[in-house]
């Protein structure tokens, strides 16, 4: 079980005063749809769990089964099916509506309960003396989408979260096909919300996201399903995460130029359709502060428009309980070097040109 | 600012299904009072911030100034002055009492406010529609203790948290003397609660904790002050952290055999007075799950009595939102090897004998 591979490089450093107090190692892959890697920093071949980063791929049966059309799902409902949502009222409403359209109710959700990600909503729930329900789980939209697909496919909805349920078998095949990788049954874990999470290399995930964003190399039906899901997320970014959260803020600011989705334990993926690129990164220790800081560095290198809206993220100022500035969350030298190389890549320049002529 | 030193070894691995999903690197020092290192895993010479791990040292002026005696402080109040408390009613009561005895009130606390560490107390506060105050800050006891010491010393209490205030200058000297290390003014940071945190190597911290636990090599007055503080913590462990928290559980189970104190950003220190040893460890990325798991491994290797009470910690089972077992938090091979070597050390055997004949 233990380490034999060389350690991944430090990607993010957290300073306090004049010294580096904490360090986050990790790996990053940037790929085109053919699997050519523009960046491979750290071990991008070791299988890792993508967790919630692949929710858009997990939502494909919702489109391909015909459920989205048959049930008349809105873009907000499609976006929440791809979401790690904050548990705010708008999210719960979209998830409930999705379930009602599939003629199901909350009792079918197998995700388990946790307090809403949104602190404000959590406090409101606590003030009301209530406990969280499955619908507050950040994954409830994904689960509602899986349930709706199962119903449309004529499958037994109960047990939809089990790895041997036909819906999960279908999803595993979709991930495998989209990322051009064989999934190993020895490497399937149980996610926080109880559905299977299949391990695959960051390199394959990055390629999968390049294909997800562009449709390149995918059968037309698959490309169209992904395009519809990504467009729904781009158009309703608040449904994909929530007010003030990284994925929502980035997609709201950059529109269809960037599709971005985080997952637990330091996962984050992104698709840059106009550049024809996919990004997959994992922080080894799972810290979100490092994941978002590292991805910001890569995004800014590839999408110049991202720089201004990410100024605060790049500045990385850390405040203490009295609001005193005590340190910063910064890109390491290794990350700076890697993103500088991306900055100079012909792909970025070509992409910028392609973008300006569209 | 960036990395030049070799990376620290992985100490803790987090598994999911059949693979390691996340990894935590770090460094550990175990020292005797003379500075002989029984264990030096990773870089134990690089200066790091001890954060809240040195609160007992920061509380020394409370004893040496005569404040504890003059104000008739109880052991609970001394323990809360060394605490990172949960913000429960017992803690707030002890902090308020300490302030009242020093003829001050909560308005003097410079620690800033945060929601209580205890989820139950936080929820109760939210249910009541209230906001957290400075007294809920896990450091409010340390601040009350600093204020009481300042009053007894005839110092202006306002500004007691500033690095140039005579009380903080005194505390810096105490840490330097206890750990036998020169503190570098270039390496002082501002802690989360706004007092200075002085960087020093793990090796020096471990030595300081060996001296703190035994008094070896310290002037009698200093040894006696530390003995009184450590005894207060051992006797009232719930005041040092709170119900169910690591430091409280360990000290409640092991009594005076172990003094243990965590800090932010992956810091943890311990004193084993009967073995004459001190432990200092830091997880590079700051994750508490890894800090406590790594320290458990070291403690069990040195104190066989710890094994049974730490069974759940050592098992490290991870449950998801539905209570399904999805993985484990485990010692890495490097940590297992290092603790196995400690297990065989003559010091441990000698210590066990010393313990049984006391």
Key terms:
homodimer; 358 residues; eight-stranded antiparallel β-sheet; 16 helices; 12 strands; disordered C terminus
Distance between the termini of chain A: 49 Å
Q: Summarize the amount of helix of chain A as a percent range.
A: 40-55%
Poorly predicted regions of chain A: 349-358
Biggest interface, CB < 8 A:
A-B, 61 and 61 residues
Mean pLDDT of chain A: 94
What does the largest sheet of chain A look like?
8 strands, antiparallel
Beta-strand proportion of chain A = 15-25%
Oligomer: homodimer
Count of alpha/pi helices of chain A: 16
General form of chain A: globular
Structural class of chain A, by secondary structure, is alpha+beta
* Radius of gyration of chain A, taken over Cα atoms and rounded to an integer in Å: 20 Å
Order of helices and strands of chain A: EEEEHHHHHHHHEEEHHHEEEHHHEEHH
Please give the number of β-strands of chain A. 12
Protein described:
Two copies of one chain form a homodimer. Helix content of chain A is about 45%, strand content about 20%. The first copy, chain A, has about 350 residues and is α+β, with helices and mostly antiparallel strands. Chain A is globular and about 60 Å long. The longest helix of chain A has 16 residues, at about 220-235. The first copy, chain A, is built from 16 helices and twelve strands. In chain A, strands 1, 2, 3, 8, 9, 10, 11 and 12 form an eight-stranded antiparallel β-sheet that branches. The interface between A and B is large, with 61 and 61 residues.
């Amino acid at each position: 079980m233990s380490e034999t591979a060389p350690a991944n490089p430090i990607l993010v450093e957290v300073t306090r005063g004049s010294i580096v107090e904490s360090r986050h190692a990790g790996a990053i892959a940037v790929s085109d749809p053919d699997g050519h890697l523009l960046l491979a920093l750290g071990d991008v071949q070791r299988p890792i769990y993508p967790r919630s980063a692949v929710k858009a791929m997990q939502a494909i049966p919702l489109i391909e089964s015909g459920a989205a059309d048959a049930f008349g799902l809105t873009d907000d409902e499609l976006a929440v099916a791809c979401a790690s949502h904050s548990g705010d009222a708008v999210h719960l409403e979209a998830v409930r509506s999705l379930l009602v359209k599939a003629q199901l109710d909350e009792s079918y959700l197998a995700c388990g309960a946790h307090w809403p990600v949104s602190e404000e909503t959590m406090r409101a729930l606590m003030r009301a003396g209530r406990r969280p329900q499955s619908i507050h789980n950040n994954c409830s939209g994904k689960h509602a989408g899986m349930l709706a697909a199962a119903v449309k496919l004529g499958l037994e909805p109960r047990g939809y979260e089990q790895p041997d349920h036909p819906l999960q078998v279908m999803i595993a095949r979709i991930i495998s096909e989209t990322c051009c990788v064989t999934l190993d049954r020895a490497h399937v874990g149980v996610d926080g919300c109880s559905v299977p999470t299949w391990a695959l290399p960051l390199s394959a995930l990055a390629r999968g996201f390049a294909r997800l964003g562009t449709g390149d190399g995918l059968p037309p039906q698959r490309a169209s399903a992904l395009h519809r899901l990504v467009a729904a997320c781009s158009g309703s970014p608040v449904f994909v995460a929530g007010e003030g959260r990284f994925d929502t803020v980035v997609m709201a600011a950059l529109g269809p130029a960037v599709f971005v989705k985080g997952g637990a334990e330091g996962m984050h993926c992104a698709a840059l359709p106009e550049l024809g690129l996919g990004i997959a990164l994992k922080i080894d220790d799972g810290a979100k502060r490092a994941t978002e800081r590292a991805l910001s560095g890569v995004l800014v290198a590839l999408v110049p428009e991202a720089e201004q809206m990410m100024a605060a993220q790049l500045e990385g100022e850390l405040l203490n309980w009295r609001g005193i500035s005590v340190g910063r969350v910064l890109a390491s030298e290794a990350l700076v070097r890697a993103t500088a190389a991306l900055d100079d890549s012909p792909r970025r320049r070509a992409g910028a040109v392609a973008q300006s002529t569209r």
